[in-house]
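DM from R.C. (forwarded with permission)

"hey, sorry to bug you on a friday — could you get me a structure for this? deadline for the figure draft is monday and I only need the backbone to look sensible"
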Amino acid sequence: LIFPLPTVKKKKDEESDESSPISKSEMELVTDAISKKSEDHFRKIKIPKSTRILIQSVRELRRTLYLKSEPTGRKTVLIFDAHLLSAGQGEAANALLKILEEPPDNTTLILVTDYVELLLPTILSRCQRVGIPRLEDEFIRDWLQMKMVKESEIPFLAGLSLGNIHQARSLISQSVGDLMKLVNGLVKTITNEEPDHWRKFTQTYSRIAYQDPATFSFHFMMLKIWFRSANRLQKDVNDLLHDTSFKPGMERLIGAHPNADFSATTFELEEAILSIPMNLYMPLILTNLLLRIQKHLNP
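My reply, with the result:
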């Protein structure tokens, strides 16, 4: 298994083993995460402060893959959040490329990512792409019921999950009221032309993008799903969120901007999420995002 780990510190950590790129305390978190993953296949392995796949992980993989193995069976490598191979200078991606160019016998490497466009073209050209469709809404509904979620909250949580079980798991750990307040507040900020609100938005989310990219991605994904639902409402296509308290806000926005291109807005939000691992200048990215959203609201 290969997955993102905390960046190696330059100073030698007193708790660290010289042969390991992470500390003993972090290794305990890794061991616990893998153990929980073995019990729940839907669980995402997520180690705090992990923003990239380390080149040390790929080097160790290369060292072990070419060792002599048993004559029967295959070696299988799972690389989760594979797009983070390209984080930073992309040194981990380049190291993996050497393995893909001369793969060892009887070995399968599976790169798993939600953001295939962030993988280097040289890596994509050496892989066979297999698309995995999102889970059906009914499956998410049943899963939420199994988790004893209130019946009145299931349409809201299932709609925001958009077939993503990891997102559903994250959502049920939070207050529905707080989630509604967060999304409604963000929608109001990015659709109204208020300079002070825009300034605060760009400053706040530029900081979050750097300090807590997972939270940035989560908030922007919620916005993307809201606008996707508004787009479906505009085109008279059913959506789970149309059975929630989000609908009146969508109707007001559609009434104020009947010709708005909500589909283009969801694309802009997706682009903002993808900007983080590319190390782009987020204040400029977010300022352009706000300007483009206004353009899509008033084409």
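R.C.: lifesaver. Residues 12-18 have pLDDT under 50 and may be disordered.
me: no worries. The two ends are 47 Å apart (CA to CA).
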